[in-house]
Amino acid sequence: MTRVVEIPVNFDHDTFDQFARAFGTPEDERLLFDAHATKWGSPYGLIGLLAIGQWLLEQQQAKPLLTIPNDREVAHYWARTGFFRHADDLFELHGKVPYVGTTGSSDVLLEVTPVRGADDVHSVVDRIQDRAAAILRELGLEPQATMGFAMALSEACQNIVEHAGTGGWVAVQAYHWRRRLGRRVAVIAVADAGVGFRTSLAPTQAKRVGDRWSDATALEAALFQGVSRFRDPGRGQGLTGMRRYVGRWEGKLSLRSGTARLSIVPGWDDDVPMAEGLPPFPGSQVQLIIPAQQSN
Amino acid sequence: MPTIDLRSILQETVSGWYGDLVTRSTGHAVRRGVEEVLAECDGEQVAVMDFSSVRLLDLSCADEVVAKLLLQYGRTRPFLLCGISEDHQEALEPVLRRHGLAAVARDRMGRARFLGVITERVRVALIMLAERGSAEVEDVADHLAVPTSAAREVLDELLERRLVLTNAAGNQVISIA
């Protein structure tokens, strides 16, 4: 039996819970992810989709189906991000995948890239630095923002390597965020379909927190107390470093894992700091947004 | 004074293509490489870790290389971090603070920098020593406008944390910055 999971028309961080609800808890069924009506896919949405494709393939040993967007421009954009190159390995694709050469598109700072080990992190960090410098300058950020951006990217990717228990994905893009902000933004999105924060931290933290242990308390412990699944006291600094970085540049950081989402919410956004009771979704999803500075 | 070029160690121990000190596993390999160099040097010498050719240093590597070396050897051997950029400093400061550590550094302009957990009085003494090169306890007392006994406490702390050296006679402290 095949069940249809509709991809939201605007598929991004704000509609991800709608997607997770539609995904539900798959049983012995094949899923068809229907993106034919989708008009926009953010890096967060696209790599979330890849992560779930990977999870289903690992769980069911069968590729789910994916219909690609009817809108030619949208499909082209997805192709430019490198999405289809990886989606082809994880989904049975339906629809015409547009051919795009290696254009070095200025809005795609880092194409959708798999992260499985430390080598991948080195490669990602190496590739991002020159391109990020140019884009962040355009956003009106000071030169030292570039290294911080690369450092945040490195730490976000390492969360996969160190904690997910499986591979994941990263993408970095810059675009004009008209609907929410009316400014250009640089966005890092990192996702995996691994064990999630709650399972990862449970051996060292669950007992301490007791009955309150949940996806939400696990996220709080990681982001605010800098705890890690390792007993090494030097561990767990990556997320707190990302928090400092977004604080400095009026950015937004959002971590979703299981049924909770914890965000560092800047003044320009009206998201809630903690959302609990969300539709469950495997692994962890991280988004970091750095907006153009106001004077720009 | 052995100078340890971290980029060379990175390229010898991990990959000839890498220019960034990022990830735990890379930091672990680089630290092992540094330890091999240190094992061949006199324990009293200042170990100079040169960051000049390192592009990016992330928190994981700052912890794995610098913090762990200071935790392991910092009470027995003085360290100087040289060629550090503002970006390196951004990674080093929180990592050192997390462990309650301090380090003497020199930036890319050759200026002395004192990182990590250092009280204001200790910082003032370190700056004075870096400017003069060396001083006696009375000089430090004058500079800090404190009694000699208080200045001696400051210098004892600096010596215990290996943030300065003493001369052979033991009557002068010498800056390592």
List the helices and strands and how they pair.
The complex is a heterodimer of chains A (296) and B (177).
Chain A: E1 2-6, E2 10-11, H1 16-23, E3 30-34, E4 40-41, H2 43-60, E5 65-67, H3 72-80, H4 83-90, E6 92-94, E7 108-115, H5 118-138, H6 144-164, E8 168-177, E9 183-192, H7 196-209, H8 215-224, H9 238-248, E10 252-258, E11 260-264, E12 274-275, E13 281-291
Parallel strand pairs in A: 1-3, 2-4, 3-5, 5-6
Antiparallel strand pairs in A: 7-8, 8-9, 9-13, 10-11, 10-13, 11-12
Helix pairs in contact in A: 2-4, 5-6, 6-9, 7-8
Chain B: E1 3-5, H1 6-13, H2 24-39, E2 47-50, H3 59-73, E3 79-84, H4 86-99, E4 102-107, E5 112-116, H5 120-132, E6 134-135, H6 137-144, H7 148-160, E7 164-166, E8 173-175
Parallel strand pairs in B: 1-2, 2-3, 3-4
Antiparallel strand pairs in B: 4-5, 6-8, 7-8
Helix pairs in contact in B: 1-2, 2-3, 3-4, 5-7, 6-7
Written account of the structure:
The complex is a heterodimer of chains A (296) and B (177). Chain A has nine helices and 13 strands. Chain A is of the alpha/beta class and 296 residues long. Chain A has a single domain, classed as Heat Shock Protein 90, CATH 3.30.565.10. Chain A has a seven-stranded antiparallel β-sheet, with helices on both faces. A four-stranded parallel β-sheet of chain A has the order 1-3-5-6. Chain A is globular, with a radius of gyration of 18 Å. Chain B has 177 residues and is of the alpha/beta class. Chain B is built from seven helices and eight strands; from the N terminus they run E-H-H-E-H-E-H-E-E-H-E-H-H-E-E. In chain B, strand 7 and strand 8 form a beta hairpin. The two termini of chain B are 13 Å apart. In chain B, 46% of the residues are buried. The mean pLDDT of chain B is 94. Classes of the chains: A alpha/beta (296), B alpha/beta (177). Chains A and B meet through helix 5, helix 6 and helix 9 of A and helix 2, helix 3 and helix 4 of B.
